[in-house]
Write a structure and sequence with these properties.
The protein has 267 residues and is of the alpha/beta class. The protein contains eight helices and seven strands. Strands 3-2-1-4-5-6-7 form a seven-stranded parallel β-sheet, sandwiched between helices. Helix 1 packs across helix 8 and helix 4 packs parallel to helix 5. Bound molecules: nicotinamide-adenine-dinucleotide. Keywords: Oxidoreductase.
Length: 267
């Protein structure tokens, strides 16, 4: 795996590793992709629809001396995982890299549903298709590629910890993801593979832009101080740095966990 000379600087803890980050065209996924690349991993930057944004993530990584390539697959339909891995395999081959993966980060997700009175069956199904079924089958198809000692990291949410009836169906998808991490960790431990959830609180990304800055927001929500004990809103980097630790060799003894990354807030 001879491409590390393109990585500038000291040895990274993920040198020689390959990582897949889903939904890495923006937001938390982009920050994770950039951080894992900074740690030395070759990063497959998965995207669903925004090819230009995904290419921007790749260019940011390359500009920083890292290695990355884009991987396209629309998640939420049967066959999505197979399509994703086919694109991943092709991207690796095109880059002249060995087949296989060391870190799988299931970050792509959709969120924020209405309360139970307003959720349609179609919305419910789409939430579960993208947030639960896609990670499940991405891992199922990825297992033949995932090397021993690898990492599976599911980006869940702090909403699994508290009552959030206004986003009930979304919270349920993340609860399912946490159960996935818990049980799969036991299955894969024999191979030295860890499986964990990282559970962010409110993070300043596009999905929260209206809520954080919109006119209609409640005064309590407008106060950044109310969203964490640090007096500021969480940033994608705050999550990416925790993911980087979980992905690192130092986290070998951490598995089956849900790691709250909420700035000390309830959410
Ligand atoms: P975002 O909307 O900015 O990014 C989500 C990414 O997933 C995008 O790149 C998008 O293209 C991709 N994606 C969504 N649906 C897809 C589909 N059907 N097919 C392919 N790609 C798809 O969101 P974000 O805030 O960066 O959130 C990332 C993850 O973190 C999500 O799983 C989200 O549930 C979770 N999370 C976010 C927050 C927060 O406050 N932002 C809090 C807790 C958990």
């Amino acid at each position: 795996r001879g491409d590390r000379e393109t990585v500038i600087g000291t040895m990274g803890v993920l040198d020689g590793r390959t990582a897949l980050v889903t939904g890495a065209s923006r937001g938390i996924g982009r920050a994770i992709a950039r951080r894992l690349a900074a740690d030395g991993a070759v990063v497959a930057v998965h995207f669903g629809s925004s090819e230009a944004a995904a290419k921007q993530t790749v260019e940011m990584i390359i500009a920083s001396g890292g290695r990355a390539f884009p991987v396209h697959a629309t998640l939420g339909a049967p066959g999505d995982a197979a399509a994703l891995w086919a694109a991943f395999d092709a991207g690796l081959a095109a880059a002249g890299l060995d087949p296989g993966v060391d870190v799988i980060v299931n970050n792509a997700g959709i969120g924020r549903s209405e309360d139970i009175r307003n959720v349609t069956p179609a919305e419910f199904d789409q939430l579960f298709a993208v947030n639960v079924r896609a990670p499940f089958f991405i891992v199922q198809h990825g297992l033949v590629r995932l090397r021993d000692g690898g990492r599976i990291i599911n980006i869940s949410s702090g909403v699994t910890r508290i009552a959030t009836p206004d986003i009930l169906a979304y919270a349920m998808t993340k609860g399912a993801l946490d159960t996935f991490s818990l049980a799969l960790a036991k299955d894969l431990g024999v191979r030295g593979i860890t499986v964990n959830s990282v559970n962010p609180g409110i993070i300043d990304t596009d999905v929260n832009a209206d809520w954080l800055r919109g006119d209609e927001q409640a005064p309590a929500a407008r106060s950044a101080a109310s969203l964490s004990v640090f007096g500021r809103v969480g940033q994608p980097q705050d999550v990416a740095d925790v993911v980087a630790f979980v992905a690192s060799p130092d986290a070998r003894w951490v598995t089956g966990q849900t790691i709250d990354t909420t700035g000390g807030s309830a959410l």
